[in-house]
Amino acid sequence: MEQYFDAIVIGAGPAGSTAALKMARAGLKVALLERGAYPGCKNIFGGLLHNSPVLNQLVPDFWKTAPIERFVYRKTLAVTTPDSFITLNYATENFTQLPYNGFTVMRPVFDRWLANEAVKKGALLLCNCLVDDLVRRNGKINGVKIKGRNGDLIARVVVAADGVLSFTAEKAGLRKELKPELLGLGIKLLLSLPEEVINERFGLVREQGADFSILGITEGLRGGAFLYTNQESISFGMVIHLDSLKASGYAPYDILIKALQHPLIRRLIKGAVPVEYSAHLVPEGGVRGIPHLYTDGMLVAGDAAGLCYTNGINLEGINLAIASGALAAETIIEATRSGDFSRDFLSLYQKKLENSFVLKDMKTFSNAFEMLRIDRLYQTYPELLCSVFEDIYRVTGTQRERIFKLIRKKSHGKLSLINLISDGIKAARGLL
Amino acid sequence: MINIENISQITRFRTDKESHIILNKEICQTCDQRFCVQICPAKCYTFNESSGRLDVTFENCLECGTCYVICERKAIQWSYPRGGYGVVYRLT
Q: What pLDDT digit, counting tens, does each position of A9-54 carry?
């Protein structure tokens, strides 16, 4: 038997649940489909949920009810070689008071909470539902088929929020084949450690959290590692460009396991016990990885829409997912009023994204893509930087050299002036 | 600290009877790239040198899809497991 809805949302992640919440709140009859046994059980991320005014508008003071692990108080950038490291810390009391800037969360817990918020507003959450195919009528997407279930789910519009692999966007002809050069592989190990040990080791009080971005710990591959403190655990993992990994011949977990032994990491995780290992692809192509975002009867949001970016310092995905889900919902609410779900009308979604921080930020940092593909960034520069610092500090009983001369001497044979200028231009274009 | 072969001791799975990963035996037999073996973060793929056979342990699949994206010969027919089956993250 067919079931009818105003809208069907595929995927109860941050994008999908936000869209469902907002549409249900406006009185639409919404089905929120999740292939897992519960929302979040297929989802992983590094660990940081940024401040999200969009979420706060939908669930006021969300941090009071959402399952937050810690409020991020200190951000650390670390540049490493196998036996040395330089860290730059930024800590501020401002981040641990309103408006909080970021929270460590666990996706199987947070996503479940957010989907439940959508349910509270009237959305129908259907778990264990894998979408097998789309239903098309009169040249427009009109619903979905669920694997192993008789009777299609029919709706006036479908939101594809089914993650980075989005087979539904592919079936709708909205995205082409996924390319390794536009993806990163994220792997993560969750390590359990008592709360008091974390607080003492990281210099944190109460619910304060720490966040590390680590460069030079990926065997020279393009990518970086992260470490986040949760209440009683540490998330350690890395994201590596898939094309770089493929060309290297390395197995991803070997790089991760080796990184656990690094002098910086090893003392931070001492005594911790592995409790969960996970992996996920990350859309890392920036604006290059964005598919067509709408067609007749369908919108694409979140990772499925490639809405994720990094400029090397900021890494944002979940807040873009939440914002895109909300804008998809706004578009559908307006389409419902007009009774028009055509591609022409739904192009409004693209305009809304372009006028919001989502596509604006992605465009601002679109050149960071080229910068982050500089192989030297991941080994040559960290080694150079650390060796210069070593010589600045090291006392040998012989004559000291000026820093500029030291840099020139250290970079000899490793880095030409042409390399340096070309990398400098890419970095400036990416960030400045 | 961790042994990827024993991944199911820390990561939870609800295993289906049927595999959601189907290999094209003909292509895989003649493939000398085997990026899948190298790159799968759960070490699901093993190549037996003596028999020349590629095997996949779908039970430990983390559903990242990397093998599917990386295979240049389109030999991996990959879908998500049936609703409710596969990896079940609890905390991460």
A: 999 999 999 999 999 999 999 999 999 999 999 999 999 999 999 9
Domain co-membership, A18 together with A120: yes
Q: Which of A127, A250, A260 sits opposite B1 (nearest CB)?
A: A260
Q: In chain B, which among 4-63 make CB contacts under 8 A with chain A?
A: 4, 7, 10-11, 14, 35, 38-39, 41-43, 62-63
Note whether A269 and A322 are within 8 A (CB). Answer: no
Show the domain range for A213.
181-283
When divided into structural domains, chain A yields a total of: 3
ipTM for the complex? Answer: 0.97
Q: Which DSSP state fits B80? A: P
pLDDT digits (tens, 9 = 90+) for A349-359: 999 999 999 99
Same domain, A341 and A410: no
Q: pLDDT confidence of A171, banded at 50, 70, 90?
A: very high
State the count of interchain CB pairs (< 8 A) between A and B. 123
Which residues of A are less than 8 Å from B86 in CB distance? Answer: 36, 42
Q: Which among A316, A332, A355 is the end of a domain?
A: A355
CATH number at residue A44: 3.50.50.60
Tokens 């259907």 belong to residue: A126
**B21-81 belongs to which CATH class?**
alpha beta
User: Which phi-psi region, left, alpha or beta, contains residue A157 (left: φ > 0; alpha: ψ -120 to 50)?
Assistant: beta
Distance CA A262, CA B41 (A): 20
Inter-chain residue contact B38 with A251, CB threshold 8 Å: yes
* Helix, strand, coil fractions of chain B, as percent rounded to 5: 25, 20, 50
Whether residue B84 and residue A127 make contact (CB cut-off 8 A), yes or no, is yes
pTM score, whole prediction: 0.96
